[in-house]
Amino acid sequence: LNKQSPIVVLDSGLGGLTVVRSLRQALPAEDLVYFGDTARLPYGSKTASVVTTFVSQIIRYLQPLEPKHVVIACNTATALSLPDVRAEFPSLTITGVIEAGAQAAVEAVGAIEEPMIGVIATEATVRSQAYEKAIHKRRMKARVLLQPAPLLVPIIEDGRMDADPLVQLAVRQYLTPLTTRGIDALVLGCTHYPILRGLIEETVGPKVAVVDSADHCAHEVLRKLESAGLRREVSEPTRGTLRCWVTDDGPRFTRLASRFLGYEIPRPTWINPDELPNARAELVDVRSVG
Ligand code: DGL
User: Fold this and answer.
1) Any ligand 1 atom below 6 A from CB of 18
2) 218 near 22, Cβ under 8 Å?
3) Which residues form the catalytic set?
4) Contact 240/29 with Cβ under 8 angstroms?
5) Does residue 271 line the site of ligand 1, with CB under 6 A?
6) I need a surface site. Which of 208, 210, 243, 270 has the fewest CB within 10 A?
């Protein structure tokens, strides 16, 4: 491992790009490798063993790139498979997004004595109770209200945005049970949801702090790289690359990802998910904007 090694970021689809955006800000010089498992999303309706198999296949596939850090930029995969994949790949540094999201939530409620924290997430994340545990570890007295929002990931992957009536209806349906209970903060407990942040903030109103895990997650990566002496200096080069892999529909991913990030991303490499278990990624040196 050395400073030039890339950071791997993975998700079921576009969601992890919300973490890529924060990583790019915190660590502009790093090369990022992004994997969107677009053929097999959503993860949020699947069971732990299936999601763990997917995540482990992806990490094994990307391992030849010698990542200096792996970010599981998916709450569902973090909740269901982080301990297992850490045990499976002891030589890699792997972090998830749930501790970061819980940290953002407790910071947002500040000094409120018995804060009420709402969390929207996929069904699998809700079932795992990972957010309750992570929040209660930090604030015993917090009340945590979990709300599954299973339609949001497919809606976002469909490219529908804030102005779409279907999106507005879904967001309102999912958030009303939380806003009527008077939550102080809302955690976007799925990395896809910050794509709809504007609409979500408008729906919950100005008294509710809306938080997600991206910035805290990026800073955790920064701290770990720094303490391992693996952080690239900003001058070498000034901007790192972004290379993407997907398991389906590269053109669609390129279009939506570029729209979300606000700059053109290079065409992703396609890997057939059936071939993942036996294939190994190769890094062709295409320097690109990211
Ligand atoms: N971005 C993933 C998460 O944070 C979405 C999971 C899914 O594919 O359902 O949970």
Assistant:
1) no
2) yes
3) 74, 190
4) yes
5) no
6) 270
What letter would DSSP give residue 277?
G
Separation of CA 227 and ligand 1 centre (Å): 30
The residue type at 8:
V
Nearest-atom index, ligand 1, CA of 41: 8
List the structure tokens of 100.
């970061």
Integer Cα distance of 181 and 91 in angstroms: 45
78 within ligand 1 shell (Cβ under 6 A): no
